[in-house]
Specification:
The chain is α+β, with helices and mostly antiparallel strands. The chain has three helices and seven strands. The radius of gyration is 21 Å and the shape is elongated.
């Protein structure tokens, strides 16, 4: 009797473990926007809007997000957010993540950003979408192009 209970318990455990290992549809993540925030000291801050699409048949719960943003192949900003939510099956959501741009990155990018093609820049976005509990989060690494926030005109600066 005890042996049959042990065998059944082991089978249930193995089946649930196999179900957790099923292949997951890849997430489609892109930068939907970049808005300036109030900075402190010599750093700049932006709100990065991430559009996350779930192409899977199962809703995806998330608990936190971390990201690193490179512009023109150089490190630019990083940020984290403790937001929680669910991306519906075959659905999408937009998550706002505040990022910090250190003074060294600002200096490094000033010339490059002011001479970029019509206010656009190539970007690479790396990070992780956290998962609740003991579930494994989803890493991402995407590339694309983004419109940069407009710099003030020379007449406005005077």
């Amino acid at each position: 009797m005890r042996r049959s209970i042990l065998v059944i318990s082991t089978l249930i455990f193995c089946l649930s473990a196999c179900a957790a290992l099923r292949p997951q549809e890849p997430l489609r993540i892109s930068v939907a926007g970049l808005e300036p925030l109030e900075g402190k000291g010599m750093e700049a801050r932006f709100a990065v809007s991430l559009r996350i699409q779930n192409h899977g048949a199962v809703p995806l719960d998330y608990d936190g997000v971390a990201l690193d943003l490179d512009l023109h192949g150089m490190s630019f900003a990083s940020g984290v957010s403790g937001q929680q939510g669910t991306i519906p099956r075959f659905g999408e959501t937009v998550i706002l993540v505040p990022v910090t741009v250190p003074a060294t990155a600002i200096v490094r990018h000033v010339f490059r950003l002011t001479t970029s093609d019509h206010g656009r820049a190539d970007y690479e976005l790396r990070g992780q979408l956290g998962a609740p509990g003991f579930a494994i989060g989803r890493h991402f690494d995407v590339k694309g192009e983004i419109a940069l926030p407009a710099l003030p005109a020379e007449e406005e600066v005077r």
